[in-house]
């Protein structure tokens, strides 16, 4: 592995470590964009967008659009678009979470998205997210919070008390997943909202006396990502699906050459269907394009000159479960990006968009792979088909091969981070004649 590849993957690990929730991911991306000269827009304000400038806008603090405005007319040249999502499957703290049982202070949790539950046991967990508070003057504030330290765990039941644990144990999300936060002494019951209010007051002392109103909080594994393997072939971290795509998309957008109009959208709520104001099925991207382009005819002309690449991790073939893959479509780690194809439009790729991307990769000698789910299995989906449906742009679905998807810790290939960055940068720089 080259020094450049090592550095890029270390940056990825740092990005993920600073982004335990979608709110934190958007904050991290916003800081990187500001450092790269992007100007922040606010949706409730009036806009005056100028060719040659760089902008970004957020919604719900958990979704973001970054845009580089090229000099060439949009209706003639279109926009090169990248899409990803900021959310990952996890455990979320319930509104009234306190459980004081048998001397333990526990918190009740909900499962968010398609969580692979077994790996959440016996992990050092912390809590992060967004809180809403009101100060003594009645002013409402929304702030991010992160306990950072390991403060919770979901302990396993010892095998001595469940002899069939390795063959028949099922996980009940209601009864088996409440996290242990502390011990309680006698009648002293723990109260999470009080704990959280004290934490917020300490972290935001400049706001003065505060009253906690509400929160959206997630649990996460505090253990940082690692590069591993005898030859450092792998990168393991939480939330690679899909913060790896957010990170690489952002790198490509910032590093791409000027000239072409290009855009990155990272939506929240993909893991639960995208049906929200901040999700891909919401109006955020359409609203942005409407304010950018204007009338209906210009919008249609621009979109017909444009293309979107939806970037979301793909399933690498698992050496212990190879039968779960179609024999001819088992992507391998460090063998390049994966084009995701589904006849029933669970992925938006078609022959036209595949050909365009293949031409981009061939020009840079970047290897490519294809994924098609077994014909006797169901298929997941991405923001690709939703975005294509909502705005009418031709779309391709791709991703890097990943093991352990939706686990608390996932694995991807260190070379694939490089391959994906180069391929997306090449796509963003495509001339008007190429799409």
Automatic annotation (TrEMBL):
Its cofactor is Zn(2+). GO terms for molecular function: aminopeptidase activity; metallopeptidase activity; zinc ion binding. This is M18 family aminopeptidase. Transmembrane segments: none annotated. Its EC number is 3.4.11.-. One of its GO terms (biological process) is proteolysis. Signal peptide: none annotated. The lineage of its organism: Bacteria, Pseudomonadati, Pseudomonadota, Gammaproteobacteria, Cellvibrionales. It comes from BD1-7 clade bacterium.
């Amino acid at each position: 592995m080259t020094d450049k590849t090592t550095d890029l993957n270390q940056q990825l690990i740092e990005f993920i470590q600073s982004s335990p929730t979608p709110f934190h991911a958007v904050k991290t991306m916003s800081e990187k964009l500001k450092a790269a000269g992007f100007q922040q827009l606010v949706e409730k304000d009036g806009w005056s967008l100028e060719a040659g400038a760089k902008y970004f806008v957020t919604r719900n603090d958990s979704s973001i659009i970054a845009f580089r405005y090229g000099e060439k007319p949009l209706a003639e040249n279109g926009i090169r678009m990248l899409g990803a999502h900021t959310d990952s499957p996890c455990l979320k703290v319930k509104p009234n979470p306190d459980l004081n049982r048998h001397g333990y202070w526990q918190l009740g949790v909900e499962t968010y998205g398609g969580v692979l539950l077994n790996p959440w046991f016996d992990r050092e967990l912390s809590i992060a997210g967004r809180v809403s508070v009101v100060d003594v003057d009645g002013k409402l504030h929304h702030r991010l919070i992160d306990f950072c330290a390991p403060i919770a765990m979901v302990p396993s039941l010892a095998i001595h008390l469940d002899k069939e644990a390795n063959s028949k144990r099922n996980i009940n999300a209601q009864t088996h997943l409440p996290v242990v936060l502390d011990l309680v002494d006698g009648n002293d019951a723990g109260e999470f909202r009080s704990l959280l209010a004290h934490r917020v007051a300490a972290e935001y002392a400049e706001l003065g006396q505060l009253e906690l109103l509400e929160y959206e909080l997630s649990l996460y594994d505090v253990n940082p990502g690692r590069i591993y393997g005898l030859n450092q072939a792998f990168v393991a971290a939480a939330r690679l699906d899909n913060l790896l795509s957010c990170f690489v998309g952002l790198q490509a957008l910032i590093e791409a050459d000027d000239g072409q109009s290009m855009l990155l959208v990272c939506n929240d709520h993909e893991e639960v269907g995208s049906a929200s104001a901040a999700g891909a099925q919401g109006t955020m991207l359409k609203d942005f394009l409407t304010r950018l382009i204007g009338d209906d005819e210009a919008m249609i002309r621009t979109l017909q000159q444009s293309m979107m690449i939806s970037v979301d991790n793909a399933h690498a073939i698992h050496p212990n479960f190879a039968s779960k893959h179609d024999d001819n479509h088992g992507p391998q780690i460090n063998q390049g990006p994966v084009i995701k194809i589904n006849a029933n439009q669970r992925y938006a790729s078609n022959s036209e968009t595949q050909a365009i991307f293949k031409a981009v990769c061939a020009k840079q000698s970047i290897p490519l792979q294809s994924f098609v789910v077994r014909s006797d299995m169901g298929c997941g989906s991405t923001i690709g088909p939703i975005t294509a449906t909502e705005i009418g742009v031709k779309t391709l679905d791709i991703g890097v091969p990943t093991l352990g998807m939706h686990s608390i810790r996932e694995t991807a290939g260190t070379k694939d981070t490089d391959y994906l960055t180069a391929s997306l940068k090449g796509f963003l720089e495509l001339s008007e004649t190429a799409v």
